[in-house]
Amino acid sequence: MTDATASGAPATAPANSLMAPDARTARRNAAEKRFRAYGLGAIAVAFGALVVLLLSILSNGLGAFTQAKLSFPVTLQAEQVAEAEGALLKTSAYKAMLQEALAAYLAEQGTDVDAEVAISLLSDEAAATLREFALANADRYGEPVPFTILANGRIDGFFKGRVTYESAELDRNVSPEQLRAAESLRDAGVLTAGFNWSFITAPDASDNRVEAAGLGVAMLGSLYMMLVVLVLALPIGVAASIYLEEFAPQNRLTDLIEVNISNLAAVPSIVFGILGLAIFINWAGLPQSAPIVGGLVLTLMTLPTIIIATRAALKAVPPSIRDAALGLGASKMQSVFHHVLPLAMPGILTGTIIGLAQALGETAPLLLIGMVAFVREYPDAPPEGLFDPASALPVQIYNWTQRADPGFFERASGAIIVLLLFLLVMNLTAIFLRRRFERRW
Amino acid sequence: MSFTRLAISGLAICAASAAGAQSRDQVQVAGSSTVLPYAAIVAEAFGENTDFPTPVVESGGSSAGLKRFCEGVGENTIDIANASRQIRDGEREVCAANGVTDIVEVRIGYDGIVFASQQSGPAFTEFEPSDWYLAMAAEIPGEDGTMAANPNVTWADVRDGLPEVGIAAFIPGTKHGTREVFEEKVLLVGCEETGAMERMMAAGMDEDAAEDACMSVRSDGRAVDIDGDYTETLARIDSNPEGVGVFGLAFYENNTDKLKVATMGGVAPSTETIASGEYPVSRPLFFYIKKAHIGVIPGLKEFATFFVADELAGPSGPLAQYGLVSDPELAATQAAVADETVMN
Questions:
Q1: pLDDT tens readout for residues B134-145
Q2: pTM of the predicted model, to two decimals?
Q3: Domain residues for B31?
Q4: How far is B160 from chain A (nearest CA, A)?
Q5: Among A48, A55, A286, B211, which is most buried by a count of CB atoms within 10 Å?
């Protein structure tokens, strides 16, 4: 038997050949192919989810960037203004003036639009705009002044396809008659749609006037908070990391600190909100709803991220740089500040920007310190403005999604687009800094 | 880290001293998310029509708002708490313990609670409180008063004439003030109407236990608690054509193109039927003013007076336009605000 096998073996082809893989190699190759397919699949799923998310946000939100407006001249009379100023709800008197002016303009133009219907297309915000103008420009009474007035939210929605003749039949806030009037006003050139600057600059508006709601106060609030975070978190974080990385002795205490920092980076952000409420508002007596408190809370939240990124960047600088500096007679501090820190800077900045981007999108800690609020007054310029009430971008999105008027859904999606643009710019800057200035050894 | 802490506390103290020099010049309001839209409308108009800055209005719920209201007196506490229910005795005790003794209660009007379903869904047009009790109760007493799990699966099981579709109701979660109204004015009333309460008490339950049994909602997935806001309920109804949801009147009025409303006890909800008291499911809305802040925070009393003025809270004002049922006794409220009448 042994003879037979021994003599039979050389007759067959060799079991192993680079050209013809054996069963095991084939299995290993197949496993690799499968793994690659899984990887591609994972990327496809992630990418698909991103595309669906972006498409739904863009399709819902792009409408917020255009707005239907009516343009017509208004002639203010001094006695009308004086009479209006005597009322409690002064804006209602101004509203009447606007309606009168629009009706007169339509009669003059000879359109067949019913004036009664046409005036119902105006936004409630219009009266406030007119009052502001009237108080500031007493010298222009008696002459026709061209005004561009927002159309109300439903009419605006009609031109964006959100409101249709069918839905208007059922809707109590708009009638098909109004939609027909809006169409003929558009044909007459009175009603036009244009880029909605006020969405970017105007403050929030109440639930009755979705067309007037804007992101101005929220963007300023976010900007102020990011300023506070940058001014506090960057120096504190960098100083802490340099000390820990370059100067601190390696002992139990520093180990403990290290563990704590990593831990803090993973603490849910709402916890920082609770801390902020207890320390900054209740104990330190800082005002509620103010960007300074938001900024301080977000600083606490961002610090661990910045410290971890900075320490990694410092670690990546090779010891030979330090040794060379020390060898040439530099002090420890000189070696750090003249040589190590500049080389670590791109990494530090990248970490900081990513930390800031994270802080920009945070809502939970702001809930507890009163920034999830309806705020219409712009904060003053810093530093005093840091103590004025303000809102923030993610908070504005959260607020708008809760409102009853369907137009706010569009506004919220529009605000998400703005927030995503900010994040995109910040992350691109981080990548640019890394690519442009990073040195590899 | 100790360095970081030190630095931050140091900065906070600097910031605090800077803030101390500057006093708050706008009114701060917080509380019920049902009152929020009304408060926002008034705040906006107040800012436009007076020289005072626009008040800052936060939501967060009646309980959270009253809790913050009762934290104490001073510039970094809120001036006004909005509530979709009356302040509780326990809350007033906390208030008093923290020095908030003089509170002015202001009733701004009424809010209706409506039952609505998808516009193109089954014909849910008429409900009785008893329908909701029989559909929602966790356990229903039999003829002899022994409790058995709710056997009703479709609305047609509840009452002939209701659509033959599975029960899927989206009701406010327990943290909402609306839930309390739903339990007391719908479930409890339905329980009494069907005689279930009588049978429970006949079987030996005391009144409190029977009431609790009337208001306990089934947990087999046919009644879904919505802890978010009405936009979430609307999204659920949108994706479930057979669902019925509980909404505020104002929310419904803003979405009449998507929702169709059912009558309750034969009365269709509207500002008129709620004001007259014919429509049974409604509740008063309030705000509470910290009297100690009047005269300290500029514009506080003016804001309260402005809020309840006929031009705002009256039947033809912007609040009614949004969905508030204006209070027939508004004049008394106006007088109370003018006199700063405190609760006793």
A1: 999 888 888 877
A2: 0.85
A3: 24-111+283-339
A4: 28
A5: A286
